[in-house]
Amino acid sequence: MNESAWDINPVLYNLHHMNEIEDIPFWIAMAEQVGGPILELGCGTGRLLIPLAIKGFSVLGLDNNLPMLSFCRRQIPQELLNRIGIFQADIQEFHLEKKFSFIIFACNTYSTLTEYARKRAISRIVDHLNEEGVITISMPNPHQLAALPVYGEPEIETLVIHPTTGNPIQISSEWRRKEQIVEFLWHYDHMFPDGQVSRQTIKSRQNLLMPEVYQAELVGANLEIINQFGDFDRNNFHDESPSLIFVTRKLEKFL
């Protein structure tokens, strides 16, 4: 989760994203292939942590947003508490006392960071990777972002029910493409029985950098790109792919 962008009530965040499950089989399959322990960066409310723990993996979720982590902890079933750890820290500065076989940087977070932040984050990530470990990073396909119209009209995504008030919340989105970024806006309209509407708008930015830029940064951090997928079905990446997914490990000469 992008901590700076998601200055939002974790209940709303979870309602928005809890049904996004199309990528979960991919992360589970990767975990089964690589093994644990697992570190997820930007874990948010635990959308990936809990399914991975259900499969028997030991997972640690790291996020800088304390309300998100508090919500996440409340979501963890009692029987999984011994498999899931929660840690509050900045992804650019974290220091843990263990290393991991599988490090996950999911949910389009990496491509929201500045170049400086990406390099600092990758340096910390590599330091926490086992010798045979794997880092996997997912983001939107930059080619698809660059092809978006300059402005996307507001569009309703879904309607959810607030678990406390029982009132409907309409979620809509729009975007604005600029020279170096695409800015996405999500509107959360809490609709009350008397007709009043309370809106919260959240912004998130995606960098318009081509895959070659990210590739060069990863190689510059002494990582080898062992796979580059275009979706969570592991199809090869191409310009029309919905996603850009890097699977990396340490270069052998740096082990």
How many domain regions?
Answer: 2
Order of helices and strands: HHEHEHEEHEHEEEEHEE
CATH architecture of the largest domain: 3-Layer(aba) Sandwich
For the residues shown, what is the average pLDDT? 90
Query: Total helix count?
Result: 7
**Relative strand content:** 35-45%
CATH domain fold name of the largest domain: Rossmann fold
Structural class: alpha/beta
Q: Identify the CATH homologous superfamily of the largest domain.
A: Vaccinia Virus protein VP39
Oligomer: single chain
Helix content: 10-25%
Radius of gyration (CA) equals 18 Å
DSSP strand tally? 11
Biggest sheet strand order reads 3-2-1-4-5-11-10
Uncertain spans, ≥5 residues at pLDDT below 50? 1-6
Calculate the terminal CA-CA distance, rounded to whole Å.
Answer: 30 Å
Overall, the morphology is globular
